[in-house]
Design a protein that fits this description.
The structure holds two protein chains of two kinds. By secondary structure, chain A is mostly helical. Chain A has helices spanning 6-25, 34-43, 46-68. Helix content of chain B is 39%, strand content 16%. Chain B has a seven-stranded mixed β-sheet. A two-stranded antiparallel sheet of chain B has the order 6-7. The chains are: A mainly alpha, B alpha+beta. Chain B: Pfam families: SCO1-SenC.
Chain lengths: 79, 250
């Protein structure tokens, strides 16, 4: 299976960006963006979909840290 | 004029015999205005200027010396590190065998990546190409050789690398080889690379160091640029290295 060409890469990135924009507008409400999700999955290699999903998670987590700050998990009991 | 002098000069001035200093509250009114034993205005200005000049000169000298020492220290560190020593035997994207000696005498910007890379490698190669373009604009500078070496020799054969590098700078040369040869050059340049798990298509992502290396004409590592460095900053840095270049190993 040969690597995506530049055109294929750009098509994949565009689909990913559209999908992510949809998620941004609907605050991560995945079902609303189902059609764009399918488009994204069809234009990108499976490995890339997984990779970009993880990247999205990371970016959202980073954003959360930057806006809400870091709260280590609370332990029960001992002070 | 006294206000322009750094503190240490004022301290030195205060060590001079009191009558050489201008009388404080009178201003520089000349021989008739001051006490009978004070120097004339012209002479006082000359003293201040001479001391100021000496202090300024000393400061410039010390600053230059500090800069020289910093550069010497850096050269010692680079020499000890000697990153990228040893030969490599790879094949370029046209099928020609290439070894390190082929690039001696050239400035090289080197990036390790793989053709199945989702986004980072195209971005970095785009950036590298742009930096080379910027440097190309200055006819006085030697032409930089952009180089791409794959960290995924299992999939990136000559044809695959050829298809890949076509999309970037026209001078970008892609190199590949056997897994052993690639492992050897990656370890010579301390590049980390680790193939991830394969999916049902046999596709996988290779986690790897994301760095653009600058190699001098003697083939040794001189500097590196991470993801946060823009093409402009890279071009600026390469230009500075070219202008101050001295061979690392004698």
């Amino acid at each position: 299976m040969s690597a995506p060409t530049m055109e294929e890469r750009k098509a994949c990135w565009a689909a990913r960006d559209e999908f992510w924009r949809c998620l941004d507008t609907h605050t991560e409400d995945a079902p609303r963006c189902e059609k764009l999700r399918r488009s994204f999955e069809s234009l990108c290699p499976q490995q890339w979909v997984k990779y970009f999903d993880k990247r999205r998670d990371f970016l959202k987590y980073k954003e959360k840290l930057e806006t809400e700050g870091f709260h280590p998990a609370e332990t029960d009991g001992k002070s | 004029a006294l206000a322009l002098l750094p503190a240490r000069c004022l301290r030195r001035l205060s060590l001079l015999p009191p009558r050489l200093l201008p009388a404080p509250s009178r201003g520089l009114s000349g021989p008739r205005g001051g006490p009978p034993s004070a120097l004339p205005l012209g002479r006082r200005v000359a003293v201040v200027a001479a001391v100021g000049g000496a202090a300024g000169g000393a400061w410039l000298y010390l600053r230059a010396r500090k800069e020289r020492e910093r550069r010497e220290r850096r050269r010692r560190e680079l020499r000890a590190l000697a990153l990228g020593q040893g030969d490599f035997q790879l094949v370029d994207h046209r099928g020609r065998p290439r070894c390190k000696a082929d690039f001696r005498g050239q400035w090289v910007l080197l990036y390790f990546g793989f053709t199945h890379c989702p986004d980072v490698c195209p971005d970095e190669l785009e950036k590298l190409s742009r930096a080379v373009e910027l440097l190309d604009r200055d006819a006085a500078l030697p032409r930089v050789q952009p180089l791409f070496i794959t960290v995924d020799p299992e999939r990136d054969d000559v044809a695959a690398v050829g298809r890949y590098v076509r999309d970037f700078h026209p001078r970008l040369l892609g190199l590949t080889g056997s897994p052993e040869q690639v492992r050897a050059v990656s370890s010579a340049y301390r590049v980390y690379a680790s193939a991830g798990p394969k999916d049902e298509d046999g596709d996988y992502i290779v986690d790897h160091t994301i760095i653009i290396y600058l190699l001098g004409p003697d083939g040794l590592f001189l500097d590196y640029y991470n993801r946060s460095k823009t093409a402009d900053k890279i071009a600026e840095s390469v230009r500075r290295h070219m202008e101050s270049y001295e061979p690392l190993l004698d």
